[in-house]
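Fold it.
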Amino acid sequence: MALPFPMDRNDAGAAHGGCGRGGTTGDPAVTGEAGLMARTRPVAKSRPAGNGDIPDAAIEGYDPRHHPAQLVRRVHQLGAQLFTQNVRYPNLSVTQFVALVTLLKLGPVAMSQLSRLTSMDPSTTTVVVRKLEREGLVEKFKSPDDQRTSVIALTEAGRRCAEEHVPVSVAAGEKLLEPLTEIEKQLFVALLRKVAEPGD
């Protein structure tokens, strides 16, 4: 169930007997300084009425910035920034590098296998491979065992690109965890893996 969020609601009319009757708007009885003060009274803000299942205290105490998923997203953004600001190949993204280095380590793999190995959904993998192929970093061909299967392999330029950026990725990871002690770094990575890879 979606959480209700505050919205503006003018309660002044209700406080004076309803809209247009005994209120501040269109009421000739309210004039002068008193009328001005009534008309400029701050608008009260209240949360729209819900079904009562979510206590106000729970809404007030909820901070999306500190939600685990949001914190992980912010850490990911910082890590990606640390990597991309030091890339040596124009516009190389983190996902493209992950695909390249996976191919560097394992050799040619099927498109579906590359998707699983890099934790990318199939549509994202297709976009990444298309960009790398356009840049001349990978090549795609049909599997000799199954013509329905596309196999992805590094070109020589792709191999050089992957090798050159391994140190860049390592340095970005070290910079990302710089605020932590050595023990905290090991624990942090171990806990992330426990959450991300619960079956391992």
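The radius of gyration is 29 Å.
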